[in-house]
Design a protein that fits this description.
It is a single chain. The chain is of the alpha/beta class and 312 residues long. It folds into two domains: 163 residues, Rossmann fold, CATH 3.40.50; 141 residues, 3-Layer(aba) Sandwich (Rossmann fold). 31% of the residues lie in helices and 27% in strands. The protein contains nine helices and 14 strands. It has a seven-stranded mixed β-sheet with strand order 10-9-8-11-12-13-14. The radius of gyration is 20 Å and the shape is globular. The chain starts with a strand and ends in a 10-residue tail after the last helix. 42% of the residues are buried. The model has no long low-confidence stretch (mean pLDDT 93).
């Protein structure tokens, strides 16, 4: 492990330090600040020549700031003659713009993939992409992890019975099926119609939820409109306790206020892929760490071992 070095920008240093604890190494030192006019200033304080570099930096809000920090850090590492640079991006921002679904709109996920590759990244380690096909936007290796194991271990510890996995839309069936398989429970789907990018109208439920404890599973929660509308539909359909397992808790806008008003959601379970100090203080939000999952992936990548076991 002498050739391994873990760095972090300002996006989520707490997660980077937790990863280093799991790896039994220290977080390498880098100066990531701003010049007086606001431009990102980076200086790598540790020697990285010939080393295997891992930069932990989710591109979460402020997305543009964190993305630029990551790009500039990668460039600095490349120019300092590091052997390999892996961008560890627990939350991949701009992932929702992954196709042209309207005239004259960009495919920003592809643009960000190009920027990361051009800056000098050798490979990408990420988790729960909004769309799996984003892996194909890269011309470098992408290791795509899933948080399903972290969530299922937590729900097993609760000892809940009569569970049902609920997909909030047709696009999330594959993820919900993974939960259903691991926990041995049936699957249900909320059929909804989207009125705008921010507003949806839930229609009806495909599957049996009456008298069951429901777990809504999704990759991210932003304003939470889809989730909380789904909770109300499940409650009207006779579901008992309703939980939500969301990989990335963006919780933008008035999401926390909506959660406070959504009395039928017993618990919102998210990961620490994004730093959310306020979420940890909320009585109905449970934050699960992904540090050990990412640390194991980093160790296996460094040792040129398979990470397939992390998907079992």
């Amino acid at each position: 492990m002498d050739k391994l070095a873990v760095f972090s920008g300002n996006a989520h240093q707490e997660l980077a330090k937790d990863i280093c604890k799991c790896l039994k190494t220290k977080l390498s030192e880098a100066l990531v600040t701003r010049f007086s006019e606001g431009e990102v200033r980076v200086k790598i304080n540790d020697n990285v020549r010939g080393k295997d570099i891992f930069i932990v930096q989710p591109t979460c809000p402020p997305t543009n700031e964190n993305l630029m920090e990551l790009l500039i850090m990668i460039d600095a590492m490349r120019r300092a003659s590091s052997q390999r640079i892996t961008a560890v991006i627990p939350y991949f921002g701009y992932a929702r713009q992954d196709r042209k679904d309207q005239p004259r709109v960009p495919i920003t996920a592809k643009l960000v993939a190009n920027l990361l590759t051009t800056s000098g990244a050798s490979r990408i380690l990420t988790m729960d992409l909004h769309a799996g096909q984003i892996q194909g936007f890269f011309d470098i290796p992408v290791d795509h992890l899933f948080s399903v194991g972290v969530f299922t271990d937590y729900f097993k510890s609760l000892g809940l019975k009569d569970l049902v996995a609920v997909s909030p839309d047709v696009g999330g069936i594959k993820t919900a099926r993974a939960y259903a398989k691991r926990l041995g429970m049936p699957l249900a789907i909320i059929d909804k119609r989207r009125e705008s990018p921010e507003k949806t109208e839930a229609m009806h439920i495909l599957g049996e939820v009456k008298g069951r404890n429901a777990i809504i599973v999704d990759d991210l929660i932003a304003t939470g409109s889809s989730l909380f509308e789904g909770v109300e539909v499940l409650n009207k359909a006779g579901a008992k306790d309703i939980y939500a397992a969301i990989a990335h808790g963006v919780l933008s806008g008035d999401a926390i206020e909506r959660l406070d008003n959504c009395k039928h959601l017993k618990g919102l379970v998210i990961t620490d892929s994004i730093p959310l100090p306020k979420a940890k203080e909320h009585a109905r939000i449970k934050v699960l760490t992904i540090a050990s999952l990412l640390a194991e992936a980093i160790k296996r990548i460094h040792n040129e071992e398979s990470i397939s076991c992390l998907f079992d």
